[in-house]
């Protein structure tokens, strides 16, 4: 089994590919705006990473969205539904969780086919 670490750093890699699956976790770079804006920003980072690895959002299998305030669930869903490819919605769950940075409103974990 080969493991490819995309843009590895000391703490973590931007993505990891193993057994034909891409694993990545993205957070908003700016930490500005409401949950809808931060979700859109974070999903654009997902698009960028997947494109760098020869994949795209139509190949996403699973998404886990972490949010510190589930009262902002509808805002997050507005951005998600505008972004997700028609007919290609992955399995998804949303979890209420304290995030590592107090300004973040979302953290998104993706598993996609390479």
UniProtKB/TrEMBL annotation:
By its UniProt entry, which Gene3D superfamilies does this protein fall under?
A: RutC-like
Q: Which InterPro entries does the entry link to?
A: RidA_CS (IPR019897), RutC-like_sf (IPR035959), YjgF/YER057c/UK114 (IPR006175), YoaB-like (IPR035709)
Q: Which SUPFAM superfamilies match?
A: YjgF-like
Origin, by domain of life?
Bacteria
The portions of this protein that span the membrane are none
Please state which protein family the record places this protein in: Belongs to the RutC family.
The protein in question is named: RidA family protein
Q: State the organism named in the record.
A: Vogesella amnigena
């Amino acid at each position: 089994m080969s493991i490819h670490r995309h843009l590895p750093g000391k703490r973590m890699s931007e993505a990891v590919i193993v057994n034909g699956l891409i694993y990545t976790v993205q957070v908003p770079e700016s930490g500005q705006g409401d949950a809808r804006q931060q979700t859109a920003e974070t999903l654009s980072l997902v698009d960028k990473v997947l494109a760098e690895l020869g994949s795209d959002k139509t190949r996403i299998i699973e998404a886990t969205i972490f949010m510190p305030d589930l009262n902002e669930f509808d805002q997050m869903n507005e951005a998600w539904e505008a972004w997700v490819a028609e007919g290609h919605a992955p399995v998804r769950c949303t979890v209420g969780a304290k995030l590592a940075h107090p300004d973040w409103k979302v953290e998104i974990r993706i598993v996609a086919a390479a």
